[in-house]
Specification:
The complex is a heterodimer of chains A (150) and B (449). Chain A has 150 residues and is mainly α. Chain A is built from 5 helices and no strands. Classes of the chains: A mainly alpha (150), B mainly beta (449). Chains A and B meet through helix 1, helix 2, helix 3 and helix 4 of A and strand 5, strand 7, helix 1, helix 2 and strand 26 of B.
Chain lengths: 150, 449
């Protein structure tokens, strides 16, 4: 059941007349490119292999996907240390923390860098008194309203 | 122009309408928009960002005085949907980034939407309050308890009008059901269930039940060493509540029917385009990974987006797509550097217009592309601050691949790969589009004559 709408077509009418001459030469170029169509990708592959000779033979294989799944999953499978995570097709490796204390330390360091003016006293609950929720450092430096809503 | 048939004879000119967000060069990462979605009537537009916040815009009523301007979108509500969490068991942070927002169809005065981060789905209720009770017996106007000894008469509270307040409350939290990162959520046409999909599994939920979900797809192999593909996106059929599709990192789509069995590991249909083995390269599988799959409004087709193309598939033909559109084929000769800077893993989304006649998807350099399926014409437009004057008509852009560069063209090497348009949305019935460019939201409309 098609919805009743009023539908667009892309705006090309004005531009097309000017661009026709170029389009022809563009098409010519495209023809030659199609003949060598395979080459751009293969050329890029050769470039990559030249830079990373240790690149695995099966890039789409389980190593690649396992790394992708590693984000967020504690795994007991060990990987050969010689292969960079990047070469396996992994996006930026998520940082793992040893435990929650390690995590809180890392966040505190980041927070101090971002807000140098914040008083150190506010961040530390050293045991002088029983902490209340207001005393504890927030994981996020501040819950700011989105700028889209501004 | 006859509505519903598409503009076969008349071209549409797209104009700038609104720009949300700031210009700051050092905009924080939390401001990066991660999802955009219109609701079913187009009255509301929701965005989610990396900071876990949701902002909802509402279209203002069109006034008779301003015929030249269709209703603009203004902020209606904003709330913190998800917060960063720490998984103590795995010693990993759970990002608060909103991966997807999906609206429920409106059934009463309140609006409902689902929002999800990597691990938890939440059902939010957004409602308006314009009256409040005044004159309580036991509380005074500030809410403090009155001393019972001072109460000598009985009074009944009355409702009095107040300034409109829009409140967002989390009504359901669906947690602890996904080991891997959630990439998709989809509301079923029965409006009672929805699904959430992660890399290896898809779960079916009932909106009323938060402590259980059914697992309907599980592609995790017994031995993880044998893993060859992951689920990248999933969606329910718009009309048939038993049918859904999911796409994979290998460029295939599976359609499943929940009537066939409780666990839909065996697909009903399998969509795959055969590949010429001589064309295969290191990048082939990576660029064939489908980043988004969307049913057409009619339910007869699905559209998939992989790194370089958008494809339209007819549900009745599994062996190849019926249409293939090149989004930015000139990137084929840049794959090596795109792999090195991770851009080759960017997940672009794609959308249909209301009548399924035009499809849209994003690219780099803040370009986005539209393809008219009927006329076979396409256009490249840009979301930029320079073209942000009210009602300014967007000029088509062109990328030149080599040789002579004409004055208005941009060469492939000059493209800014940090400016990527991954998320776009199209109003369900009108020519209004929302385009997310990093931390800015652009709204474009077609020219009103």
């Amino acid at each position: 059941m098609d919805r009743a709408t009023h539908c667009p077509g892309p705006s090309m009418s004005q531009k097309q007349e000017e661009e026709n001459p170029t389009e022809e030469t563009g098409e010519e170029k495209q023809d030659t490119q199609e003949k060598e169509g395979v080459l751009p990708e293969k050329a890029e592959e050769a470039k990559l292999k030249a830079k990373y000779p240790s690149l695995g033979q099966k890039p789409g294989g389980s190593d690649f996907l396992m790394k992708r799944l590693q984000k967020g999953v504690w795994s007991t499978i060990s990987y050969p240390l010689t292969l960079e995570p990047k070469a396996l097709g992994m996006r930026s490796v998520e940082q793992k923390y040893f435990d929650s204390g390690d995590y809180n330390m890392a966040k505190a360091k980041m927070k101090n860098k971002q807000l140098p003016s914040a008083g150190p006293d506010k961040n530390l609950v050293t045991g002088d008194h029983i902490p209340t929720p207001q005393d504890l450092p927030q994981r996020k430096s501040s819950l700011v309203t989105s700028k889209l809503a501004g | 122009m006859i509505p519903g048939l598409g503009a076969l004879t008349q071209d549409t000119l797209w104009c700038f309408s609104q720009l949300k967000g700031t210009v700051e060069i050092g905009a924080t990462e939390a401001d990066i928009i991660s999802t955009v979605e219109f609701n079913h009537t187009g009255e509301l537009l929701a965005t989610g960002d990396k900071g876990g916040r949701v902002v909802i815009f509402q279209r203002e009523q069109e006034s008779k005085n301003q015929v030249h301007r269709r209703g603009e979108y203004n902020v209606y509500s904003t709330f913190q949907s998800h917060e960063p969490e720490f998984d103590y068991l795995k010693s990993l942070e759970i990002e608060e980034k909103i991966n997807k927002i999906r609206w429920l169809p409106q059934q009463n005065a309140a609006y409902f939407l689902l929002s999800t981060n990597d691990k938890t789905v939440k059902l939010w209720k957004v409602s308006e309050r314009d009256k409040r009770p005044e004159g309580y017996n036991l509380k005074d106007e500030e809410g403090r308890l009155r001393d019972p000894a001072t109460i000598t008469t009985l009074r009944v509270p009355v409702l009095r009008p107040m300034d409109l307040m829009v409140e967002a409350t989390p009504r359901r939290v669906f947690a602890n059901a996904h080991t891997y990162h959630i990439n998709s959520i989809s509301v079923n046409s029965d409006y009672e269930t929805y699904m959430s999909a992660d890399d290896l599994r898809i779960n079916l939920w009932n909106f009323e039940i938060t402590n259980q979900s059914f697992n309907i797809v599980d592609i995790k192999p017994a031995n993880m060493e044998e893993l060859t593909e992951v689920i990248t996106a999933a969606e329910f059929h718009p009309h048939h509540c038993n049918t859904f599709v999911y796409s994979s990192s290998k460029g295939t789509i599976r359609l499943c029917d929940m009537r066939a069995s409780a666990l839909c590991d065996r697909h009903t249909k399998f969509f795959e385009e055969p590949e010429d083995p001589s064309n295969r390269s290191f990048f082939s599988e990576i660029i064939s990974s489908i980043s988004d799959v969307k049913f057409s409004h009619s339910g007869r087709c699905i559209m998939t987006r992989d790194y370089l193309t958008v494809k339209v598939w007819d549900l009745n033909m599994e062996n190849r797509p019926v249409e293939t559109y090149q989004v930015h084929d000139y990137l084929r000769s840049k794959l090596c550097s795109l792999y090195e800077n991770d851009c080759i893993f960017d997940k672009f989304e794609c959308v249909w217009n209301g009548s399924d006649s035009v499809i849209m998807t994003g690219s780099y350099n803040n370009f986005f592309r539209m393809f008219d399926r009927n006329t076979k014409r396409d256009v490249t437009l840009e979301a930029s601050r320079e073209n942000s004057k009210p009602r300014a008509i967007l000029k088509p852009r062109k990328v030149c691949v080599g040789g002579k560069r004409r004055k208005d063209e941009i060469s492939v090497d000059s493209l800014d790969f940090s400016k990527k348009i991954l998320h776009t949305a199209w109003h369900p019935s009108e020519n209004i589009i929302a385009v997310a460019a990093t931390n800015n939201l652009y709204i474009f409309q077609d020219k009103v004559n």
